[in-house]
Design brief:
It is found in: Secreted. By secondary structure, this protein is mainly α. 47% of the residues lie in helices and 2% in strands. The longest helix has 20 residues, at 2-21. The structure holds protoporphyrin IX containing FE.
Length: 325
Amino acid sequence: MESQSYFKALIIILIALIGSTQAQLQLGFYAKSCPKAEKIILKYVVEHIRNAPSLAAALIRMHFHDCFVNGCDGSVLVNSTQGNQAEKDSPPNLTLRGFGFIDTIKSVVEAECPGVVSCADILALTARDSVHSIGGPYWNVPTGRRDGVISKAEEALLSLPAPFHNLTTLLTLFGNVGLDVNDLVLLSGAQTIGVSHCSSIATRLYNFTGKGDTDPTLDNEYAKNLKTFKCKNINDNTTLIEMDPGSRNTFDLGYFKQVVKRRGLFQSDAALLESSTTRAIIARQLQSTQGFFAEFAKSMEKMGRINVKTGTEGEIRKQCARVNS
Ligand code: HEM
């Protein structure tokens, strides 16, 4: 009897020990090591997004592109070097904006606490604070992510969804990082802010099946409009179009309203009408902005946890654009 309880106690201690070595993200991870970090980031964001609200879209997209490739580890922020083409230079990332914004915030945080706060956390917090400061939803960002030391362009190409993907491919790519159909629809709703280049929809508008045609799932009137006034030819790589016309800096239900009218810009937007499950998730969002914000916050927090490096993994980069030597 006595030896039995001895073993029970031993097992409990062992489980506790294993648990304590598996570091996890936690709210306020820097409360002791750099107590002002989160405030510094918020202050910088609030002061600067006011004059450049379109950056909120760029930053949430950057966080998403970071998390889908090697986990949320700041790998998207790293510059290419002579022997390595980094994620930043992969086709899906060539339209990312706002790297300088993150680099500057990092240098402000470094001045307060050198070598403490990771670039991955700075990106996650900046994305949240910038979206919230334009009136969008607020979500929890537990911290403690460490920065990765690997950033490869080809991995970005394999892991990131593309505008021409169908529902099956989108679900596979989201599934690969532990996100489900609900997360796919909710997170796509972020595209209620921001802009796209005409190049991202050129094939859909001008050469859908290789015969000079337009994707029939795109609303005919809208397609005509885009071709006449915005993306006037297939080779236009510079013109920008609003994802949610008229409210590109307002985080609202505009994206879902566009999608149900068959006016989502990409095939990946139209794909969300392919199944009754995704249609039902959209219909639910359209009932209330508050409900959308609450569900969106849950999916964002989940996305922010994708394959994070914690504890002694990775490093705390000194500059976000280069791994420490
Ligand atoms: C479901 C798969 C997705 C695909 C295929 C996709 C694809 C794209 C593409 C092609 C663009 C336009 C790029 C350009 O031409 O400049 C874009 C923009 C954008 N995406 Fe997505 N996206 C997806 C999901 C998401 C998610 C999950 C988020 C955030 C949580 C997001 C946030 C944004 C934002 C905010 C923009 C505007 C960026 C800006 O203004 O610079 N997207 N997306």
